Amino acid sequence: MSTDAIVLLKDEHKQIRKAFRKFEKAGANAHKTQGKAVDRIIELLTVHTYIENEIMYPAVRDLVPELEDDVLESYEEHHVADVLVMELAAMKPGDERFVAKTTVLIENVEHHIAEEEDEWFPQVRKALGRKQLREIGDRMVEARKKAPTRPSEPGALRKTVKAIVD
Ligand SMILES: [Fe+2]
Ligand SMILES: [Fe+2]
Fold it and tell me: What confidence tens digit (pLDDT) does each residue in 9-43 have?
């Protein structure tokens, strides 16, 4: 089984996109279907963000310093997605902003995934050999075992989120 880091992350991207399409296909009043789709999106994004933030991004920063700006931008994009995910996790389907917030989350993440896949992952592959990518992949598989599946709320953000959601 291949544990190439980029193959692994792209596979997760595929699952994330699939969950997005499920949400979009649910009818506007299908609250139950929408809620289920959003639960799945939250779970997939929480795990994916964890392994990228904990393993992939630090490894790239360390091994491919010329991609530093891309990694920093990615951390910021993850941060924006984290805020939306935390807010969504506190909402119910049918809430006035539930669909709008999910739509904005999807737009943001699609953009972010496209940048990873089209712009800088190919450069990572070029810079690192197959062996190094497999080593990073192995560490990701390990990290995934202890990855959170629901967003945590760091104290600093909790207040902001409450203010926006309430
Ligand atoms: Fe990412
Ligand atoms: Fe990603």
Answer: 999 999 999 999 999 999 777 999 999 999 999 99
CA of 48 relative to ligand 2 center, distance in Å: 7
Ion ligand 2, residues whose Cβ is below 5 A away: 116
- Closest ligand to C-alpha of residue 53 is 1
Q: What is the mean pLDDT of the chain?
A: 91
d(CA 106, CA 84): 10
CA of 9 to the centre of ligand 2 (A): 6
Residues 6 or more apart whose Cβ sits within 8 Å of residue 51:
9, 140, 143, 144, 147
What angle, 0 to 180 degrees and rounded to 10, lies between the N-to-C axes of helices 98-114 and 31-51?
40
